[in-house]
Amino acid sequence: MQATIEHLGKIVNNYNRRLEAIPEEEYSRKPGPGKWSKKEILGHLVDSAQNNIRRFVVAQYEDLPRIGYDQDKWVALADYQHYPTKDILALWRLLNRHICRILAGITPEGALRKCAMGNDQQYTIKWLAADYCNHLLHHLHQILELDPIAYP
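The structure corresponding to this sequence follows.
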């Protein structure tokens, strides 16, 4: 888990300044009908952090909790499109730092406990944490218009 914690910390540190440099107009622009703006993608990353925090905590004391979420509804209901970007960025940073602290407290045995996702597939906390980093990078590359990172 230590490698994943360090990786997540580096992601937040390395991408934060780049995210802060994006102009507000660019964050708010929607690329097309039914597509998320960069601000909404960042909001989705906030939602993902919140749901993964729940997974990382609950899976340590409940047997095979099922924790999924409807990402489109979360983004719409949180109304990230009209949320101050600097606040979404601050929340994103803090939630990811919090995830690092939670992961640091998980025992090796705890890292092997499982959680079911919305699709009922079961994953260990260790796998979910590594996957969370990949998901984060995928969307950060979308926001920053960098070479795509494939993510299922």
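The chain has a mean pLDDT of 96.
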